[in-house]
Amino acid sequence: MYIIRLSLPVLFIVASLIYAIMIFQLQPAMLGEPNAPRYFPLIICTGILIFSIVDLINMRKENIRQNEDLEMLSRKSTLKVVGIVLGFCLVYTLIFEHLGFLISTILFLGALLFYLNGLKHWILNLSVTIITAFTTWYTFSFLLEISLP
Amino acid sequence: MDFSIIIDGLYTALQPINLMWLVIGAILGTIVGILPGLGPATGIAVLIPLTFGMEPISALILMAAIYYGALFGGSRSSILINTPGDGSSIAATFDGYPMTKKGQAGQAMSIAAIASLIGGVMAIFGFIFLAIPLAQFALNFGPAEYVMLFIFALSAVVALSMGNIAKGFLTMFIGLGISTIGVDLQSGVHRFTLDVPHLTDGIDFIVIIIGIYALGEVLYNMFNINKAKKPDQNIGSKWFTKEQWKKSLAPILRSGPIGFFLGILPGSGGTISSLLAYSTQKQIAKNKEEYGKGAVEGLVAPESANSSAAVGSMIPMLTMAIPGSGATAVMLGALIMIGIQPGPLLFENSPDLVWTLINSMFIGNIILVIINIAMVGMLVKVLHTPPKVLYPLVLVLSFLGAYTLGYSTVDFYILILAGVLGLLLRVLNYPVVPLILALIVGNDMEQNFMRATVIYDGPVSILFASPITIGLALLTILSLSYPLIIKLLGRRKKKDHPMTM
């Protein structure tokens, strides 16, 4: 639980440090003040760093055991479901342009439905997958004239 | 006021194509609002691709209809299964669900719909009288005034994340940080693009919004996916009684203006408006003990305020391009994408568009009451949609929406990252609205800041550039000290009445 609670302020501190390095690596402007592209990001970077540290300090005052959502997310079963759903999303991202919208969506939606809704409801899962994939493909490709891979 | 523009607006709103989009938006919004976990922001975000290729006015009508349709729908799930569709429907659970337990679900839903209608109509009149003068006033704004306006809006949003000020500032700076990705418009320097060509134009904030609201929401709902509640089919009579109406009228009329004025403030939105309307109503009520046990006044007050706040939150969005809530933030992004540039000039250059929207809001509210009362049985059935089927569908629509924005799977990675961020922000109680608002105004804020520093010879002079900037600076200080004042007043109250604690 503490690791998850710590994750965001620590992540933001690391992000602000990387952001700072990138700010100093920026090309100077060719016109006007050479450092102009750095000013605004520098203010932001300082803000992220200061408030991440304040948040980290404030964490001591928080009773994280009272946070039901955090307690739920810390459970292995929840982490597993969230992780698997995110895994499916990542695979969908990787196959989308290679297999095209129709096949990748059938695989993605089918996998999600069979995983979440169970094998027992296979007729519902299959029909929802096929109807949704074809309907959205037809709507976007022909009615809205949006080209999908 | 030129009344011919109003009549022209009404004529355009009544065009069959616009009426069709209005009805479709109202139905889709109601359905999205009813489904637990899906609020108006998510609804508009995942349905954005529908507006592609549409006439700008039809797109605006559709999005506005989805917005207030989702607000109408949000209270249905609060009343029927004690599960609010989003934050603004929380207050409807307090007395709405107890009415359902008493067998008055139908009456609760119909009177809540009427309360929303009256609240919405009151706010439309407020919109007419306030939006145009505000837009005319905003025409006086130069770069310095805009910088101060953005600072005020951001500080107000942060201040309203009560108890989480540091977290509010943190998410605000994160949003501003994301907005700096891409080519700097003043110097042409590529910033933080990691040599990815797709990032040259920056990150489309709608992808982040879809990620945080839709993907983040789906991931959050995975926690309780096996514990979905189902409503009772027996909703009792769907017509409220004369006595219920008598009790409701005054709270409805009182709460509408509360919601409207709070709705105009950036970040306050429907949640604060409805909760404040509920607590105000309870404080002045003679029958306080009945609140929380099915008092009809406790249901109609937040419903009227919520609907009013929705219209109010469109004022800063349309007049100054500053969204007042998550849903209007999504709308703003979508409007820019389809070629409508909100801001003071919108009222100067496209009064027809503004008046058509106002008229369509009026017609839309009436259509929504009809939908919500006549189709109550069908709407209850929507709640039977299994979440295990619904959430995968939302995921597909989210990815599809993200793809159609930039035709690149790079946006899918951003979407997934934003979804994880949205989940963590929600679980760890970080306010999301400051991030979204900062992300939207970040680029304009930087450009105006750089221009103003050149015009006024340094950043400090911006503060004293004009009476408007001084006024906005004072408002910023006031909004930031608001939580401190509330805290001090709370301590004083505790000291004065120690026994009541």
TrEMBL record, chain A:
Keywords: Membrane, Transmembrane, Transmembrane helix. Residues 10-149 form the DUF1468 domain. InterPro entries: DUF1468. It comes from the Bacteria. The keyword Translocase does not apply. The chain crosses the membrane at residues 7-27, 39-57, 78-95, 101-116, 123-144. It holds the Pfam family TctB. This is Tricarboxylic transport membrane protein.
TrEMBL record, chain B:
It holds the Pfam family TctA. The chain crosses the membrane at residues 19-38, 44-68, 108-132, 144-162, 169-185, 205-223, 317-341, 353-377, 389-406, 412-441, 462-485. InterPro entries: DUF112_TM. Residues 19-437 form the DUF112 domain. Keywords: Membrane, Transmembrane, Transmembrane helix. The keyword Ribonucleoprotein does not apply. PANTHER family: TRICARBOXYLIC TRANSPORT PROTEIN (PTHR35342). This is Tricarboxylic transport membrane protein. It comes from Geomicrobium sediminis. The lineage of its organism: Bacteria, Bacillati, Bacillota, Bacilli, Bacillales.
